[in-house]
Design brief:
It is a single chain. The chain is an alpha/beta fold. The chain has one domain (2-201). 31% of the residues lie in helices and 14% in strands. The protein contains six helices and eight strands; from the N terminus they run βαβββββαααββαα. The protein has helices at 13-19, 77-89, 95-106, 113-128, 184-191, 195-201; strands at 2-5, 24-27, 41-45, 50-54, 57-58, 70-71, 133-136, 147-148. Strands 7-2-1-8 form a four-stranded parallel β-sheet, with no helix packed on it. Strands 3-4 form a two-stranded antiparallel sheet. It has a two-stranded antiparallel ribbon with strand order 5-6. Strand 3 and strand 4 (50-54) form a beta hairpin. It is globular. This is WbqC-like protein. InterPro entries: WbqC.
Length: 206
């Protein structure tokens, strides 16, 4: 019950649907970094639009391994992201309960993108009460025994094209139209302890 994945920034709900029944996640940090992906961007829902939050990185060309990508702290992205999350979810039912756990990670000011993303992933798993251990993948691990979803969940194609996530609507803060597959924090802030149950029900062919 193990899975190999990329490491994303506050991943979309689809990602957690894919990993929820596993015991171990192996993160591939030796892959070549790819721009314009979930590795450094996430989506939240504001009053009248979906907002993409993107972490600026230094370099990030195709020949650099993901494990070596540094966050560009010369840009004031952290305040923008924290304010964006507060603006989007400040009135959500579970915001006050969950936000401090996330804010704590942001304020640590990590140099490496992977360290920041990994800590946020660990917090998300904890808030979901999913008992999954997170490890680094290396070539000595026998792939045949592990589910490999690298390259499957990507920002350039819709979740509906994949056989993972069947969006179950839940109460979002703004508007009548449900917007699926936001960052997991959309689900956590809006639904709290029910989030785990919604993940289970959102699995295709569950």
């Amino acid at each position: 019950m193990a899975i190999i994945t990329e490491l994303f920034y506050l991943p979309p709900i689809e990602y957690f649907v894919a990993i929820q029944h596993e015991k171990e996640i192996f993160l591939d940090l030796d892959e070549n970094y790819q721009k314009q992906t979930y590795r450094n961007r996430t989506q939240i829902r504001l009053a009248n639009k979906v907002e993409t939050l993107s972490i600026p990185v230094i370099g990030g060309n195709k020949n650099v391994k993901t494990s070596q990508i540094k966050i560009d702290h010369s840009q004031k992205w952290m305040n923008v992201h924290l304010r964006g999350i507060q603006s989007a979810y400040g009135k959500a039912p579970f915001f006050e309960f969950y936000f401090p756990y996330l804010e704590q990670v942001f304020l640590k000011k990590f140099d490496l993108l992977t360290e920041f993303n990994r800590e946020l992933l660990t917090v998300c798993l904890k808030l979901l009460q999913l008992d999954i251990s997170v490890k680094n993948y290396d070539q000595t691990i026998v792939k045949s025994e592990i589910k490999d979803i690298r390259g499957v969940i990507n920002a350039k194609s819709g979740y509906a094209e994949r056989d993972i996530y069947d969006a179950l609507p839940y109460s979002q803060l703004f508007g009548l139209d449900f917007v699926p597959n936001m960052s997991l924090i959309d689900l956590l802030f809006c639904m709290g302890p029910e989030s785990k149950d919604i993940l289970i029900k959102s699995q295709k062919n569950h």
